[in-house]
Amino acid sequence: MISLLRSASCSAALVGIAISWAGLSNGLAQVEKLKGPPVAAPVLQRSFADWKAACDKLPSNRALKGRWPRKEMLPLQKFSEFEEVVTAFFAQCKTGALARSTNWVGSPPRSDQFFNTDTAYFVASPKSPNSPAIPFQPYAQKVLLSPGSEIFFHADFHGDVRSLLVDLTWLNENGYLNGFNITKPSFSMIFLGDYTDRGAYGIEVLYTLLRLKLANPDRVTLARGNHEEVSLQSRYGFLEECRRKYGSEFNPQKVERAYDFLPVVIYVGSENDFIQCNHGGMEPGFSPQPLLESTSRLAFRFIGPLHQQRFTTEHPDWLTGAASRKIASQYLRDFIPESPIDPTILGFMWNDFAVFADEPDLTLDPKRAFIYGSKSTRYLLQSASTQNRRVQAVFRGHQQSPTINPMMRRLLASKGVFRHWQEADSAAKVEAPISELARILEHDELRGIPPSSVWTFNVAPDSVYGQGCEFSFDSFGILAIGASFEQWRLKVVNVPVPQ
Question: Strand, helix or coil at 50?
């Protein structure tokens, strides 16, 4: 499985990624180094209204039909305009909550590694060409909120800036935002990864999200998806998009380095209850318990090393069935991540979940990732919890398809947010039409959060996904945190997106 997955992802040894990336980016091998020491974030004057008006003039992804927009139409005419926002983001990371050592559980980051934006883990060390310049250091984040708080959730955009701006317009009209600024008390935003690739407007999506992050440093969190990774972006269009738009001015190293400051998993909650928020699935090699027990409202912890095989040995009852145990024995391992896909995949970014409750605890898609069933997921959530802090559910994206399949039918029948393992559903209905599924699956606007539940959020519609599966509404959730977990409610919002 691992060799097939690595091949499907264009992966190689760490140094090989840097070499192949240079070739694939067609003449961008000589990447300009990032300049100068960190500086204060510049004042970014462009208003949300002006930005939206410029983006509204762009043809939709569906209208482009795989082509690129004309350069004179671009809302960012020069790469330096986008680079200014990335530079401000780096400065924010180096001076804000992420930089405070008291917010880190375990060892805090080193300035010459984690915060060294002059180089990257996918760049070879000048002293040792077979070693990376700095280590890959993925991290987890905890966000502790008060009862009465509300949290916005959205999954994959894949270069669909049109849907993102429709969502933000809705939030402006409903009093949550004023332009890029959060104005509603106790409101936060979490985005679940995969911002680029497969669409023509990845740079515009990133610009919009970074403007939100800069305006609201501790209230907007961007999770890192599997497409926030150099080898996938070399295959699925983002590096080509930037080369087409900006030519030799494009600095890929600076963009790719920005992803290292995005957490691969977020534990958001209030008092004793938390939800695991990430792009992909479970990661049995990581224990969030020390992070959950920390006293900081915002806290961070490095992911590695991962102890998947140790967890399996110490918890022999977490998997049932000989086939699931064989997969775990053969493929789970103890390792230090060298990249999101080396020496194997990082589960928070890549893994999936079974659709039906009676599927095996652990299966394997050789071209993609591991698939976790209901029982093994419940076990992992309980193992991640402490006596005082409980991980109750998972919010994520990732599992959508550009062609209609059992998951996409359920996402559409559920109005864009599907809860796995519902009692009325079963493998006998695997190919049931959307109209039938809509009668048996949850699709109300307001929904409770059962313990040990997993929720998949749909992808934005101005995309190959929306076109292939014939939907034109975007979906997001607003989670209201009650005084007790039983009172937490997810409001599912659908907004039409012009195509």
Answer: helix
Q: What is the DSSP string of 288-344?
A: -HHHHH---SEEEEE-PSEEHHHHHHH-TTS--SHHHHHHHHHH--EE--SBTTBSS
Nearest CA to 417 out of 390, 448, 391, 378 is that of 448
Other Cβ atoms within 10 Å of 322 Cβ, number: 8
What span, in angstroms and rounded, lies between the C-alpha atoms of 37 and 91?
9
Half-sphere CA count of 171, side-chain side, radius 13 A: 29
Tokens of 16: 């090989």
- CB count within 10 Å of CB 57 equals 10
pTM for this model (two decimals): 0.92
Indicate the helix (H) or strand (E) that contains 478.
strand 473-480
Return the ∠ at Cα 302 (arms to 22 and 395), rounded to 5°. 90
Among 345, 475, 348, 454, which residue's Cα sits nearest to residue 393? 454
Residues with Cβ < 8 Å from 6, sequence gap 6 or more?
12, 341, 342
Q: Is 61 helix (H, G, I), strand (E, B) or coil?
A: helix
Non-local CB neighbours of 111 within 8 Å, separated by 6+ positions: none
Q: What CATH number does the domain containing 225 carry? A: 3.60.21.10
Question: Could you tell me which residues come within 8 angstroms of residue 215 by beta carbon, excluding any fewer than 6 positions away?
Answer: 179, 180, 181, 182
CB 387 within 8 A of CB 405: no
Q: Cβ atoms within 10 A of the Cβ of 314, count?
A: 10
What is the C-alpha separation between 89 and 209, in angstroms, rounded? Answer: 11
In the chain, helix, strand, coil percent, each to 5?
A: 35, 20, 45
How far, in Å, are 22, 146, 466 from residue 279 at the CA level? 27, 24, 19
Cis peptide before 305, with omega less than 30 degrees from 0?
yes
- Ramachandran bin of 106, using left for φ above 0, alpha for ψ from -120 to 50, beta for the remaining angles: left
Please give the Cα distance from 11 to 92 (Å, whole number). Answer: 31
Distances (CA, A) of 226 to 252, 314, 402, 416: 17, 29, 17, 21
Cβ contact 222:262 at 8 Å: yes
Query: What's the domain range around 177?
Result: 1-499
Instruction: Please name the helix (run of DSSP H) or strand (run of DSSP E) that holds residue 262, with its range, or none.
Output: none
Mean pLDDT in runs of 10 for the chain (499 residues)?
Answer: 39 32 32 36 74 97 95 96 96 97 96 96 88 95 97 98 98 98 96 97 98 97 97 95 96 96 98 97 97 95 96 96 96 96 96 97 95 98 96 98 97 98 96 97 98 98 97 98 97 96
The CA distance from 55 to 47, in Å, is 12
CB 175 within 8 A of CB 54: no
Write the burial class of residue 160 (CB in 10 Å: 0-12 exposed, 13-18 middle, 19+ buried). buried
Q: In the chain, how many domains are there? A: 1
